[in-house]
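Model the whole thing, not chain by chain.
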Amino acid sequence: MLDIDLASPVPVYDQIKAGLKGLVSKGQLRPGDEAPSIRGLAASLKVNPNTVARAYRELSIEGFLDTRRGGVSLIADSAVQVAKGGLGDAREAFADAARRARRSGLSWQELSEAVRTLMKEEQ
Amino acid sequence: MLDIDLASPVPVYDQIKAGLKGLVSKGQLRPGDEAPSIRGLAASLKVNPNTVARAYRELSIEGFLDTRRGGVSLIADSAVQVAKGGLGDAREAFADAARRARRSGLSWQELSEAVRTLMKEEQ
Amino acid sequence: MLDIDLASPVPVYDQIKAGLKGLVSKGQLRPGDEAPSIRGLAASLKVNPNTVARAYRELSIEGFLDTRRGGVSLIADSAVQVAKGGLGDAREAFADAARRARRSGLSWQELSEAVRTLMKEEQ
Amino acid sequence: MLDIDLASPVPVYDQIKAGLKGLVSKGQLRPGDEAPSIRGLAASLKVNPNTVARAYRELSIEGFLDTRRGGVSLIADSAVQVAKGGLGDAREAFADAARRARRSGLSWQELSEAVRTLMKEEQ
DNA sequence: GTGGTCTAGACCACC
DNA sequence: GTGGTCTAGACCACG
């Protein structure tokens, strides 16, 4: 359901948050839908449930998740708005990465080529 | 001399390593040149000398720097080779960031647009 | 668990690295075993945790330790190989010390006698 | 004249001190002889003159060298006694190295074999 | 609780 | 002045 890179310096719980926001941005998850259970998602990502729990806790505070007693979390009605904010964060993070790549000596041409290549890979 | 982003999740010492490799990749620093002194670079980056020292130590182990006892650090003869490897790392890091951005819901079009925008900003 | 000589000119973190490799060489520690925790080892050696952390970091890079995110450090599967290399280093260091002792005026006879004496001391 | 290992963790000036004491212990240098000049020795060892100067300064304090105005240093009359003390230090350093080698996993047999091998190498 | 990063500041060896 | 080592102690991510 989500793709996590354990080797990345970006915290796993941040990747989980970004991933869920992405699913809403892309419309694969809609307000009112049940979010994956903490334990189930942790198992499928091979990650500690506490890590997922932290992501969900923060998403609840941000108004992206609506966590009910009993443990079920629903995608909140405001999730679409929150996810839009997440898009901005993602853009920022991507821009940072591009600048870092530049400082490492990559040319702009190489960067846009890399984007094209990845696009083809994904199809 | 180098650009460091303290807010980034990428460790500062890794940014320093990548930055120095980038300077060699771009030819702004050549084998035989003196690398900036640990203390001087730390002061100019407003970072603790230990952090720079860690970067330099690892660069020495990697054969990018030639550090003499009680002396100055020189860009090693093999630095160009090592820097080339660094380019690969940078490409990998950038590709990761792009994939993460995708998972966050950004379209490929938005990504290549972001690259174009940044390119213009920099000139 | 390990024996460290703070008065020695050999850096403490190098002694820790050599000691752990020695434990694996001698079979007292095996791949898959948990390495002592950084904080615990630091406390028992009466050394700063950062010093142990540096040793562990380098051992991880060398592929001797398998350090998980937020977790425990395990003796890596390749540790036996790495430890074998460590044996070579130890032999080199010992040979250096012997040559230095020679230059200081000790005879070969004295050196082999010293080895015999130490052997008996240890039993 | 002397053999110095720049890669060793033992300070160069300590190696110089030990080496000179060794020459006296072995009788290759006698009280009243001129010690090599600081600049000449530094040049032949490819070491900074300050480093040799420090060794000579300490040797003077220890009563091993007799430094005259004009820069000439003579082996002092008490040098033989001081050199004997140096032998004890050398023995200690060698014993330490042997213990460290043991901790690294080398057997006593390997150590005495190493001594024998080195002896043959030197002839 | 774990390891990882960073800061601040000490001392040492060497140029 | 340089780099190298070590200490002390902070905060973060993770289990």
